[in-house]
Amino acid sequence: MWLLTKIAMKNFKPYQSEVEININLEHMVQGKHIIVVYGDNGFGKTSLLDAIYWALYGKMERNTALMFNDRASDPEMYVELYFFDPGENSSLLIRRSATKWKHNERIEIIKNGTAVKGDPLDLQQMIEDEILPREISKFFFFDAEDIKNIAKQQGGEYVKDSVELILGLKPIRKTLDDLDSLRRSFENERKNAMADVEKLREFKESLEKIDKELSEKEKQKKEVESKLQEKQEILKQLRAKLAESTVKEVKNLEFRRKQLENKKESLEKERNSLEKRLSDLSNSIHLLILQSILEDKIGEVKDKLKDLKREKTKFDESDRYIYMLDKLVSESKCPICGKLALSSEISIYQDKLEKLQKKNQNLEKYKKEIEDTYASFRMIYLRLSKQLDKIRGLDYKEIFRICQRIQEINNELHTLHKDLEKLSNTLQSMGIAVVSQLEQQITSLADEIGKDKQRKEYYDNEVKKLIASKKNIERKIKILSAKGSPTYIIEQKIRIVDNLKVALGEYLNELIEMRRKDLIEEATKIFLELTNKKEEYIGFEFSGKNDYKFQIICKDGSKPNMDTISYGELEVVALSFILGLNKYSHMKAPIITDTLFGRLSPYVQENLAKFFEKMNIQLILLVLKDSRENGKTEIDDIAPIFQKKICDEFLILRDQKNRVSTLIKGKIFGGE
């Protein structure tokens, strides 16, 4: 575990000339893991966090041009971070510098006293490998605004990439993307190879046409999905606004309408599925008249196969007889019992052998013709049997059952439509102008969403059909491609890539389920330590398998609507998630927080202080302090809880006349 033991900087934001923070390593090794830096608003707490960010990640995280002290006469700016790992007895110095006006960043790393050589990209990668990847830094160096953003988004897409990086899933997803790219390159190779093969040229043109159409349909599908997601989010916001701006009766009516709309959506989805099944059955039912014809034809083919097999057996027996005669003549003895033959007998056998060989001189040719004919009839037999099995699987009674269910659904939808119309009229007639206006927007938007869902379903079906057509052509290519030919070899590569994708996809799903569960367990433990509703909640989870939205769970098993719970509760969930993710990740970096406590309730502050006291990770707290004499800090009430775990304290002083900040070591709560 890396411990930050020293921060040195020069001409960085409000800190002019050279400023240092030296942390007592001996105290850290003894288990005092908390460092507190106090400062009033505008004195330089956040600038200290900026300095750490800039030293680690440079212009990728902070605009270098905005980091210079505007009153410094010396054009050079630098930040140095000193780290020490007691377990490995290893040291690491990171120094990033820049020159004013040029803004040309330079980075140096010294590990265990030796300068590390390499270009800037290699050195930057070393920092992220040794200390902390930039993508997840916001879960280690964070302020109240970071928690606010995560709470506002309820997790979701805002944390997805970082979470998957910590869970170790991003490399696997990258591998799947790479496999897709590899398959496309093989497909291009296949097209090039097929261009020189007359029989496969037609398939090349078909594949190109399907690929072009498939690309267009997928693009249209993504556009529809994007618009649908935007409209659903707007609808969600409108409904939340409606719920906040109406009386309890209106809220109840809105909840009832939402239930009816969900039921309507479910019924429409079921009806679409049934209508598709009905269409498939209707398109295939005419095949029933072919059943008896196919059965007769299969009988004929089976008889033909038996005749060919008997004929082949006769040739095999004749072949074996010639072989035995030849062996007897050449060895002058019976190949079965070993009895010696007389010369007169051998002469007879020799004559007989020559006659048979002359008679059967085209034996191999006939055998090959019979085998080819047998293989051809065998293929016909398999195709006819497959078609017959499909016909036997048709159930004309199912058509009646589906029609009956579709009628039932239409009746239910008619009733639902009337109920929804009645509810809308009731809401609009309540005399609340805001409600009426929102109702119109919601109704219009809900209709648009319904149409977009139908369009999405249409494109889903079109994409599936094109993929099926593509697979069918690829199957034909496999049949026509000779073993060992360029197309055959490429087909083998594509098959390997497809198998790898399937296996890796299954592994990824298992890994996600397992690691997401472990992560949520860590975050839930912390949530139950921090929340002021311990008797009401049993924890929280991700709301779905494929997303990272937060969902609180009550002790009775219910799951409250996360759009309606208090913002303070959401911030506690977000903070618990950050600390749980941090604990789960086992990264080697310290935790740095900026003005964390001001937005939290006293109860949550106290629980958070208890949690910090038990931590075994270096924790740097940037804390608000009134700069007036005897001015209070934001942790006055909770500092005694973790007082014995304070390693060092520093105070930011401000020369307001010269607009310069400095840091001094102090003692406000630390010590026994």
Structure description:
The protein has 672 residues and is an alpha/beta fold. It has helices at 25-29, 45-57, 120-130, 144-153, 157-166, 170-194, 201-244, 248-284, 291-331, 343-359, 363-392, 396-428, 433-480, 486-530, 567-585, 602-614, 639-642; strands at 3-12, 15-22, 34-39, 76-85, 90-99, 106-111, 114-115, 141-143, 537-542, 550-554, 591-594, 619-624, 646-655, 660-666. The chain folds into four domains: 3-132 and 590-666, Rossmann fold, CATH 3.40.50; 145-190 and 489-587; 198-246 and 446-484; 250-431, Orthogonal Bundle (Helix Hairpins). The strands form three sheets. Strands 2-1-4-5-6-7 form a six-stranded antiparallel sheet, with helices on one face. Strands 8-11-12-3-13-14 form a six-stranded mixed sheet. α4 crosses α15 (567-585) and α14 (486-530) crosses α15. The relative contact order is 0.14.
List keywords for this structure.
672 residues; Rossmann fold; six-stranded mixed β-sheet; 60% helix; six-stranded antiparallel β-sheet; 4 domains; alpha/beta; 14 strands
CATH class of the largest domain: Alpha Beta
Order of strands, widest sheet = 2-1-4-5-6-7
The fraction of residues assigned to DSSP E strands is 5-15%
Specify the structural class: alpha/beta
CATH topology of the largest domain: Rossmann fold
**How much is the average pLDDT?**
82
How large is the count of helical segments?
17
Instruction: Report the CATH superfamily of the largest domain.
Output: P-loop containing nucleotide triphosphate hydrolases
Span between termini: 26 Å
**Which word captures the global form?**
extended
| Poorly predicted residue ranges | none
- Radius of gyration using CA atoms only: 39 Å
Determine the fraction of residues in helical runs and give it as a percent range.
55-70%
Q: Strand count, sense and closure of the main sheet?
A: 6 strands, antiparallel
Number of E strands: 14
